[in-house]
Structure formats: structure tokens, C-alpha cells
Amino acid sequence: MTVMEQRGAYRPTPPPAWQPRTDPAPLLPDAEPYRVLGTGAADKVDPELLRRLYAELVRGRRYNTQATALTKQGRLAVYPSSTGQEACEIAAALALEERDWLFPSYRDTLAVVARGLAPASALTLLRGDWHTGYDPREHRIAPLSTPLATQLPHAVGLAHAARLKGDGVVALAMVGDGGTSEGDFHEALNFAAVWQAPVVFLVQNNGFAISVPLAKQTAAPSLAHKAVGYGMPGRLVDGNDAAAMHEVLSEAVARAREGGGPTLVEAVTYRMEAHTNADDATRYRQDTDVEAWRDHDPILLMERELTERGLLDDDMKRQASDDAEAMAADLREHMNQEPVLDPMDLFTHVYAEQTSQLREQAAQLRAELEVASEEAEEEAR
């Protein structure tokens, strides 16, 4: 006789399939994207925070234009610009504490730079020099990488481990609207909600997954509504409103840190430029569609708010612009230096202890390099 067959044994009774385990009403997002700038809520925002957000937006825009120029000069293999999405990325970085972790997607270079990473280090992957140009543990930033949504389960795993250890760490994972069509998105949200992991999911809905509009990816009322199906709150936010983004993300981070579990935030924004410099966006959208979003530019929105409140003058604008130009000049200087690469580094950071196959491959490459070096010396004589 098994334990469960014994008289009086505990037999858990699940609720009927029709009975909700969670009241869905508190989890539902607002009917319209939440806004702060241009509303009475802006009066409650710390003026210094608004000024900092503005300076970071200007710096981020200049970073995008400089990195795009570097692709045309052959210094970068590719660059996925986030022009128009700067508010999402800056707010994500500033909402975190130093102990927290950021899990970016390939387009989130501004977020990692605002988090404190050197501007040139954020482009190392896109230059093709290294898989990651920085130490993730040192900066508490997961690697920038191109596979869609694979960083989301990683964020959940780290957040779950943090909850078990009780160290108060929160993970913020960033993904585009296209990434929500990946299985990793479903798995990450489901595990996060079941485990009540301290993680915040930020979806930057910029309208297109390369050339595929959102309407061809989902029939949901919004991507934020998907949160309800997993048992977590969904927030719908104006992704070009840096103050609104910072408020909502800060609240979600605080909730996660206090044991409230995960939150899904959908930032409604727009990709002003092509998917990457290798993409021809005119094949799937009209210039008039892009122009319609220019009046909702995140920098313009912040400038209007600060100017109307007397918090921004010409000197402050000039200072923000000068700081951005200094960053761009430093970025150009670093990127114009020819990298010194060692082919043997291919085997250095794969495993802590190399497998027999890797040792064999490394030995083969080393021998080929020695032969090539000897042949070069012969030719030089």
C-alpha cells in the first residue's frame, strides 16, 4: 500500500477548471497608454529627474546617429538603430539599482550605455570583434545578442535564484514586439508568474518585427493584455514619454523587489529608422506613416514639458548637446582604431575547461597559424 492509498492520506483537490485562480481585473492594463508629460501628473515628477532624462535622451539620439554613420564607414557590420525609442531604453536603465540585472536585446545599446557601459563596448558585438565586449558580471548586464527572446528565460532564471537567496535583486528583461511571437516569451512569462520571480518584462512595441506589422503577429487587444493569461499585471505605457516609462518601470521594479512577482510592461513606440542599415523599410511602410510619429518624438515631448515649466533654457540645451558630441567624438576615436585580434581567443571563453573536441580544434588552428606565419616570413625575405 502506498502512502496515498492509506486512509486519511492528504489528497490535494485542484479547483474546477472553470474557476479562476486569480482575479483578472487588477491585472488588466489601462485602455489607453499611460502618459505623464503634458498632463497634471508631470507636476509631481522631480525636476532633476526630468532634466536627467532629457540629457540622456539627447545623448542616446546622438549615439544612434553616430553608430549609423559608423556602419556607412565600414567600422560596424550592422547597427539596429533605436531612434524614436530612446525613452524606453533610458528609462529601463535608470529604473534599476546597481545590484539589479539588465537583460537587453540586440537593439538596446542605449540602455546598456545609460547603465554605465562604455559606449564603444556596446558596439563590439556589432563590429564582429567579440561575442560580448564586456564582462556581464562586472556590469550586471547580460550579453547583447541577436537571437530573439532567448534572454527572457535567462532573466527569469537569475531572478528566481535571487528570490531563493533573498538578496533583493531584480532582473529587467527587454524584448521587441517580434520577440513576443517566440516560444521563449511564453516560457519565460509562465515560469516567472508560477515562481513569482522578481523580474520585469519590457516589450518595446515599435510597430514592426522587421517587416511584419503587429496585426499579423497577434489578435490580442494589446501585448500588455497577454500578461493576464500568465497571472501577472500588464501595463500599457506611452513608450515615447520618458517620465511615464520611468514611473511605471520603477513601480514594477519595486513591486518585484518586495515579493509581488513579475510585471509585463508594453511600451507603445515607433521605429523611426529601418530595422538595421541592411533593411529597406520603404518596401513595407510609407514615409507618411513615419512622419506622423515625428510630432511624438521623445526628445520633443520632453523639451516641451521642460520649457513650459521653465526647467530648460538655451544653456542647458547647449550643455546636453555638447556632452552628446563629446561622447560621439570619443566613440569615433575608439571605433577608428584597428582592433588587435587573436584567433585563438575563439576557444578561450567557451567552457571553463575545454572539451577534447575544442582542444583538438585549437591545436589544429594553432598549427595552421604557425604555417601561415612561416610562409609570410619566407615571402618577406
Identify the notable features of this structure and list them briefly:
2 domains, oxidoreductase, Rossmann fold, 5-stranded parallel sheet, alpha/beta, magnesium ion binding, DH_E1
Structural overview:
By secondary structure, the protein is α/β, with parallel strands linked by helices. It has two domains: 25-335, Thiamin diphosphate (ThDP)-binding fold, Pyr/PP domains (Rossmann fold, 3-Layer(aba) Sandwich); 343-380. The protein is built from 13 helices and seven strands. The chain has a five-stranded parallel sheet with strand order 1-2-3-7-6, sandwiched between helices. α9 (242-257) links the parallel β6 and β7 (263-268). α1 (47-72) crosses α2 (86-94).
The H-and-E topology, N to C, reads as HHEHHHHEHEEEHEHEHHHH
Number of distinct helices: 13
The CATH homologous superfamily name of the largest domain equals: Thiamin diphosphate (ThDP)-binding fold, Pyr/PP domains
Largest beta-sheet details = 5 strands, parallel
Could you say which overall geometry the principal axes of the C-alpha atoms support?
A: globular
How many DSSP-defined strands? 7
Portion of residues in helices? 40-55%
Helix/strand-derived class? alpha/beta
Walk across the major sheet and give the strand order. 1-2-3-7-6
CATH secondary-structure class of the largest domain: Alpha Beta
Distance between the termini: 87 Å
In CATH, the topology of the largest domain is named Rossmann fold
Low-confidence parts, pLDDT < 50 over ≥5 residues?
none
Q: Give average pLDDT, whole number.
A: 93
Q: Per DSSP, what share of the residues sits in E-state strands of 2 or more residues? A: 5-15%
**Rg, please?**
24 Å
How many structural domains can be distinguished in the coordinates?
A: 2
CATH-defined architecture of the largest domain? 3-Layer(aba) Sandwich
